[in-house]
Design goal:
Jelly Rolls; disordered N terminus; Phage tail protein beta-alpha-beta fold; 13-stranded mixed sheet; about 325 residues; 8 helices; about 30% helix; alpha+beta
């Protein structure tokens, strides 16, 4: 069986795209896409064999076929007439028009095809668990409890924080800045140690060293050491504040800082970091809390300490700790 190929070199931002197995498959798919317009019975049999040989072949051909309507509406130079000494050779791809069409297909299809060959993986921690990882580029990430972080073996310069909290110690590379995605938010490293937390639709960013850009493609808010940012995705509200650089990522030492967050948020943070099963009565949940609290991870100490700070009563019910406002509760 003869497999047709196109020798096309793509240049993106001045750097030549390195050919790999996937590029070969894309070229073969383009060849079949063009060839089938005048295919005979034998050609179709060969095409079916090629499609069935690998799921990647079928996926590549499907992607190329999707671009057909784009190419069909484009205007390309007319094909060059065959030379007199062509000896009757049947060229399936001839002239500048066909080359331009093939190049357009590659340019459209290649990014999505290559994306399928990423190697994503997830690092997750249970409530009360902590982990520390080091990426191949030297970047280290300290991960708090109740956190889910998505990374990619093939692109170690991006991390997606699905939920939870992590402190990033980034090895800066101006050519390939490190990016953290959290919900709809993008945070770009400018040479940094910074902390990112995401809980429900609330996001916080704190910078200890260097700087980061919050939403670099839109607001482009630059945060320097000691700067903190909180964002409410539901309300679309962003608030800037200050924090001592030494307190950034304070969860690592048990020093937690809150600024106007609800007590429900404080309780959820304790549950995530230490696995403390803390229940708030309805009259406490929405009450705002501002202050810095030192927690040890020992509920016997932490829950009464928090209760005294907020003027609440506490009691224990098995593995649950219950906080309530009002008359003292029996323990």
């Amino acid at each position: 069986m003869r497999i047709w190929a196109v020798d096309i070199v793509l240049i993106r931002k001045g750097a030549q795209i390195v050919r790999a197995d996937q590029d070969v498959i894309v070229e073969q798919a383009i060849g079949w896409h063009v060839r089938l317009a005048e295919a005979g019975e034998d050609d179709w049999a060969d095409f079916i064999d090629w499609m069935e040989a690998s799921p990647e072949n079928a996926a590549a051909y499907d992607e190329i076929a999707k671009q057909d309507r784009v190419i069909a509406g484009a205007r390309f130079p007319e094909p060059v007439a065959a030379a007199a000494n062509d000896n009757g050779r049947n060229h399936w791809l001839r002239g500048a028009g066909a080359i331009a069409a093939a190049a357009a297909i590659v340019a459209l299809a290649l990014p999505s095809l290559l994306a399928r060959h990423a190697s994503p993986y997830e690092v997750a921690t249970a409530q009360g668990e902590r982990r520390a990882i080091t990426l191949a580029d030297g970047t280290s990430i300290e991960i708090s409890g109740g956190t889910r972080l998505r990374l990619d073996h093939d692109d170690m310069r991006i991390a997606v924080l699905e939920q939870g909290e992590a402190t990033f110690h980034v090895r800066h590379d101006a050519a390939r800045p490190f990016v953290v995605m959290a919900g709809t938010t993008k945070i770009r490293d400018l040479g940094t140690v910074f902390n990112v937390a995401r809980q429900d639709k609330n996001l916080s960013v704190e910078v200890a060293e260097g700087s980061v850009l919050y939403q670099p493609d839109s607001e482009a808010v630059k945060l320097l050491p000691g700067d903190a940012l909180s964002a409410d995705e539901t309300r679309g509200r962003v608030t800037l504040s200050k924090i001592a650089p030494a307190l950034v990522g304070g969860w690592r030492s048990g020093r937690l800082s809150f600024s106007g967050q609800s007590l429900d948020h404080v309780a959820a943070t304790l549950s995530r970091l230490y696995g403390t099963n803390l229940i708030l009565a309805a009259d406490l949940s929405a009450r705002p809390f501002t202050g810095m609290v030192h927690f040890t991870g020992d509920a016997e100490r932490d829950v009464p300490h928090l209760a005294s700070l907020i003027g609440a009563n506490w009691r224990r019910d098995g593995k649950r700790w219950i906080l309530s406002d009002g008359a003292p509760l029996s323990r």
